Amino acid sequence: MNGDAIPTPGSDLSEDLALALELADLADRVALERFRSADLVVSTKPDRTFVTESDLAVERAIRDRLAEARPDDGVLGEEFGREDRGSRQWIVDPIDGTSNFLRGVPVWGALVALVVDGRPVVGVASMPTFGRRWWAARGHGAWTNAPESTGAAATTDPPARRIRVSGVSELADASLSFQSIAQWREAERLPALLALGEAVWRDRAYGDLWSYMLLAEGLVDIVGEFDVKEYDLAALVPIVEEAGGVFTSADGAPGHAHGSSLATNGLLHDRVLAIIAPPAASAPSADTDDPAERNA
């Protein structure tokens, strides 16, 4: 990584982002050790979702490292819960896409975020099976490790590339990732999804962190889902917003802790909310000509 991909050493958030990237390295190594293992141990949690031995091992390794590097910070993880300590909290999803992981589907990855006073300020998303990673720190842009062109010469450590959401301004030209029909049905929003699907150019369910990273790179324009927790979203917020996008709940509330999400390129946000938000929902305006105002 080079250039402004990591804030200048000594500047605000530089050490935190460097640590988040280190934690993602650790998560990748631990998870890959057991990916597609025939004897992978899988169990069911009380909420009937799956957890693998790798989910537990990754989060345990991250918590151990944080205890050394940031003993005064809080931690929230999917598998071992919340430890509150002051205004700073690391939020970790050790394997986002566990169902894919346990079936051997390569679309999964680690999410690491730093939240300060309730606002995500650092985010890293890492998909080791793809050799891909995305990261952001507030005020320093969003970045990935892949070259602009797929035809570019492959390297073991490609230079960082700054990413940006699309400039698509019409729903009829937009690409939507809706994540899961079941999510929208259980949230009683399936008619809204169908209406949105009719309004856009293309709809697919790419799934989990992958959808949001496609959005941040300008390859998808709208992502929405329900039944999501803080650890599913916190790391994604800085990446999407530093790439110029807008990230709210499906009702238009800012932040990552409302149980739903709507991420867009910003230009389409209010028009999508007009379709999917209940009539009683009062969403703040997200469309603006000033990207700085959108990300404030």
Descriptive overview:
- The chain has 296 residues and is an alpha+beta fold.
- The chain has two domains: 160 residues, 2-Layer Sandwich (Fructose-1,6-Bisphosphatase, Chain A, domain 1), CATH 3.30.540.10; 124 residues, D-Maltodextrin-Binding Protein, domain 2, CATH 3.40.190.80.
- 31% of the residues lie in helices and 23% in strands.
- It contains ten helices and 15 strands.
- α1 packs antiparallel against α2 and α6 runs parallel beside α8.
- The radius of gyration is 18 Å and the shape is globular.
- It starts with 13 loop residues before the first helix and ends with a helix.
- The C terminus is likely disordered.
The domain tally reads: 2
Tell me the CATH topology of the largest domain: Fructose-1,6-Bisphosphatase, Chain A, domain 1
Ranges where pLDDT stays below 50 over 5 or more residues in a row are 152-156, 288-296
Give me the CATH superfamily of the largest domain.
Answer: Fructose-1,6-Bisphosphatase, subunit A, domain 1
CATH architecture label name of the largest domain: 2-Layer Sandwich
The side-by-side strand order for the widest beta sheet comes to 4-3-5-6-7-8-9-10
What distance lies between the first and last C-alpha atoms, to the nearest angstrom? 27 Å
Name the CATH class of the largest domain: Alpha Beta
Strand content: 15-25%
In angstroms, what is the radius of gyration? 18 Å
State the helical fraction.
Answer: 25-40%
* Helix vs. strand class: alpha+beta
Helix count, DSSP H or I runs of 4 or more residues = 10
